[in-house]
Amino acid sequence: MGDDFHKQDTLPGENIPAKEPEKPLVIPKVIGPYKIESLIDKGGMSILYLGMHTLSKEPTIIKVLSPRFLSHPEVVRRFFNEAEIIAMADHPNIVKMYGHGEWEGGLYIAMEYIEGQTLRQFLLQNPVSLKRALEMIIEISYALCHLHTHGVIHRDLKPENILVTESGVLKVIDFGIAQLLTETESKENNAKSRMIGTPIYISPEQQRNPESVSYPSDIYSLGIISYELLLGKLSYGQLHLSLAPKGMQKILNKALQPKPQDRYQDIVDFIADVSAYLNSDAVEKDKKMGDLLSGLQENLRKAQTILISERVPEWSEYHIGLSVQKSVNTTGVYLDFFDLPEGLHGIFIADSSAQEAEGFIYTAMLRGMVRALCTLSNEPMALISVLNELLFRDTIPHLFNIGYLILDPKSEKLTFISCGLGSLWKLYKKPPDIFKIENQNVSLGTSVYPEFTQISLPFTHDEKIILSNYAEIQDSLLKNVDLPPQKLTEIVLRNAKLLSPKLGQERSVSIVSIEYR
């Protein structure tokens, strides 16, 4: 089965209105109390927007029912049913709902905005160790347990409907065809029923009769997902339990029994069996050949927190905002903050020309050099010149693009030097305006004695500055000049990712915002 098979819309189980010719989509400015920032996705039955609450400025996903379904009672009922189920669920592994209602364009549901990727994307891009796979299975199981406790059957559990956040937490989403066990379907609706769910992941009984399902149906879907996590790849409907870790084969076999009465009847029992295996000695024996590699990659990603600081410094003179998009790959990107002599502060960004683990090692070496040298001088030129000579004369030549900013709160000025990296902007609130500070030099390590230049400018209480290793943020900055530093960095990074979906896949991105207290 081709990749397009998995992108098909889930069938809602009733006759669908004939599709009308496509009309140009006009993006609304406001839906309820939410200002619409951009379009995220347009599906067969709904439209997803990125919104922001006009008061809290919190990012929100706004799901709107497509206009052609507003006159279709059963689809409207399911839309309200989805809102009811999400509102009922309050669990860290389930998407949160902020509100729902009517607006001039129809119906909407406002939900938590989740930074991350689908489990399907995660499996296609990342090796998964056995231990991590089991932990992820348990997280999904906890979400199902919460739903089942409230009498909810998801009915469409699949990797596309599970998100992996940037911090690694799993979130179950999309309750468009979920069913309350107490819900009764009309005979008319049963007569019109079609398949509900994605064929690969739904149970045999759900394929035969979509409306007559129970908790074991969700457990069957979880069994398929568990198999894929344990093998570290998508199954495309081909299951060979002998390929799974030996200690999990019996558990998967029970979860995937064709008859629902032969499966786990309660997700709690499934959780108990998987947890017992995870905490047993059998896990070490069952580790895959690639476990060492996947474990190493996971540890390298964790080590990125050393090279890319996410801790905002407590500088009494400034408000600091920081947002970081870490790469899915291990890359040589470095971000750090320094307290310098004479009450000055420094921010250093660097990007290695080397890729993967090699770049990671070089960048760790650079970090040590910078931290040692920055305390010796407040002059960026002096630090950059010494760094350049050290890198050029190293036995293994490699280049670094860097940006170095020094803040002097007493003199209300800044000094900036850029060697192939570092986009610095000044923002003015009244009137709203932005100005890009240009300063370009050759990459460090290019030649032994290049001529470097730096720029010094006033930095006063009426201004704000933005430092980033990503340049395409001008429009977003101009629209959000008045926001406080942290909100500003979050929105700018989020808009950058929407405009460039692959942003952060190859290199990490950081955005720092600074203004006087």
Mean pLDDT rating: 84
Helix content: 25-40%
CATH topology of the largest domain: Phosphatase 2c, domain 1
Oligomer: single chain
CATH architecture of the largest domain: 4-Layer Sandwich
Which CATH first-tier class of the largest domain would you pick?
Alpha Beta
Could you tell me the radius of gyration in angstroms? 27 Å
Please indicate the percent range of residues in DSSP E strands (runs of 2 or more): 15-25%
The major sheet is characterized as: 6 strands, antiparallel
Number of domains: 3
Number of E-state strands = 21
Shape: globular
User: Could you name the ranges where pLDDT drops below 50 across 5 or more consecutive residues?
Assistant: 1-13, 186-193
Computed structural class? alpha+beta
Number of helices: 14
Q: Give the strand line-up of the largest sheet.
A: 1-2-3-4-6-5
- Name of the CATH superfamily of the largest domain: PPM-type phosphatase domain
Distance between the termini: 58 Å
What's the SSE blueprint?
Layout (H helix, E strand, L loop, with lengths): L29 E2 L2 E9 L3 E8 L5 E7 L7 H16 L8 E7 L2 E7 L3 E3 H7 L4 H20 L2 E2 L8 E4 L4 E3 L6 E2 L6 H5 L12 H5 L6 H17 L14 H10 L11 H12 L3 H5 L4 H17 L10 E8 L7 E7 L5 E8 L3 H18 L6 H13 L7 E9 L4 E7 L3 E6 L4 E5 L17 E4 L4 E6 L5 H6 L5 H15 L9 E8 L1
Antiparallel strand pairs: 1-2, 2-3, 3-4, 4-6, 5-6, 7-9, 8-11, 9-10, 12-21, 13-14, 14-15, 15-16, 16-19, 17-18, 17-20, 20-21
Written overview of the protein:
With 517 residues, the protein is α+β, with helices and mostly antiparallel strands. It has three domains: 3-112, Phosphorylase Kinase, domain 1; 116-292, Transferase(Phosphotransferase), domain 1, CATH 1.10.510; 297-516, 4-Layer Sandwich (Phosphatase 2c, domain 1), CATH 3.60.40.10. 32% of the residues lie in helices and 24% in strands. The protein contains 14 helices and 21 strands. The strands form five sheets. It has a six-stranded antiparallel beta sheet. Helix 3 packs antiparallel against helix 6 (215-231) and helix 3 (130-149) runs antiparallel to helix 8 (267-278). It is globular and about 75 Å long. The model is unreliable at 1-13 and 186-193 (pLDDT under 50).
